[in-house]
Protein: DNA-binding NarL/FixJ family response regulator
Organism: Winogradskyella eximia
Amino acid sequence: MFSKVLISDDLGSINQGVRTVLDGLGITNVTQVQYCDDAYLKIKSAYQNAEPFHLLITDLSFKSDHRAQRYASGEDLVKQLKQEYPDLKVIVYSVEDRLQKVRTLIQTHKADAYVCKGRNGLKEIDAAINTVYGGGIYISQQVEHALSSNSNLEINDYDIELLQQLSNGLSQDEISNFLKSNAIAPSSLSSVEKHLNKLRIQFKANNAIHLVAIVKDLGLI
Amino acid sequence: MFSKVLISDDLGSINQGVRTVLDGLGITNVTQVQYCDDAYLKIKSAYQNAEPFHLLITDLSFKSDHRAQRYASGEDLVKQLKQEYPDLKVIVYSVEDRLQKVRTLIQTHKADAYVCKGRNGLKEIDAAINTVYGGGIYISQQVEHALSSNSNLEINDYDIELLQQLSNGLSQDEISNFLKSNAIAPSSLSSVEKHLNKLRIQFKANNAIHLVAIVKDLGLI
DNA sequence: CAAAACCTTACGGAAATCCGTAAGGTCTTA
DNA sequence: TAAGACCTTACGGATTTCCGTAAGGTTTTG
């Protein structure tokens, strides 16, 4: 079993619950932090001292306060850590249950587990730790279809960018110019129209307003 | 000090933290529930047995699961309870920091405190309990300007309705027809345009898409 | 390689939006 | 009651979105 674990979560009370689970698994070398930057520094220095952490359990959303942070979210933290220390196992523990988030964390950033905070959260943390220790990937039941299903996986970063800019108030013409100046292809007004039209059909939206409302509800932007 | 308290929060681990605070205040008669409906029933039956709860500390968002619930959110719960039992003190304890939510809870539903979950959440819970016990209203610092300021309080139900329908994908023409068929005045296309234009200016939105994105972020719809 | 499939881009027209102006109605106030 | 403020409604034009069609380029496939 893991012997050295770091918990990162800005709500102290949740840390307590996770710690209880770790106790139950006989894991006593547990460190807690409340800021992403602290998590990064702890892991880095432990690694340099040849006493690396084996597992990180982290939340995604951290309330910002007066302390300026390099890593504003758990996602940024996971991304960086997994690049730098691929051997470090990472369990994400979040209330966030949007499929796109799960997908990004697991597939892109290579997190090892995604556990939704909820009534059974701590039980799932237990299961996740065991699965991850065995080299597996654990995903909460309520979001497990994020990976498998043939759901809206075919929307890509380009589409997200379009939707993002649209929701920022840019006209389609302005989006076209934005893409040109950022060397993103395709950039013609016609292409912007085509892609947004495709998205409208995909999400069964009546118009661009409806589309933005829908994807915001879905948490895609 | 309060002697009989109910905590309602679907994440067991958070309950633990709040319970610690209550312990520190010498409050030992504490009950916990994980569903809004349970909270309602407990309070109702305690009242009927002439042993009413004095204080409810509740979350707003509850994950839905297999159990069908009459009260889907903490907001519904607070609304109902405060109507039925005005003497019951209510502290809302939520990660939600949108001003409109705070306003509705405090002004419309008459909650006694609004505490944002965060790094200092438990300290604030402590302060809130003391303030509320003294008959006051407590609001977390980060959202306290929700009430005082002269902010966008002048947007009314009619505006919300327009924004709602707009985000549902109706064109302005369709909204006009919708208003006519529901006998809501004013209903002309021109008026719909005017009001939406006013809202665009108010929220500094470039266009209708931008407007919907903004008010969705603000939690107005 | 050639055909097919796909994508990008351009263009044009219908519809919707954005944004003035103006007329008429309602409410407030002196 | 009369003037003023405010609101609703109508209308017209500029701009933007919506939605086809078509030409040219790139990628896939046999």
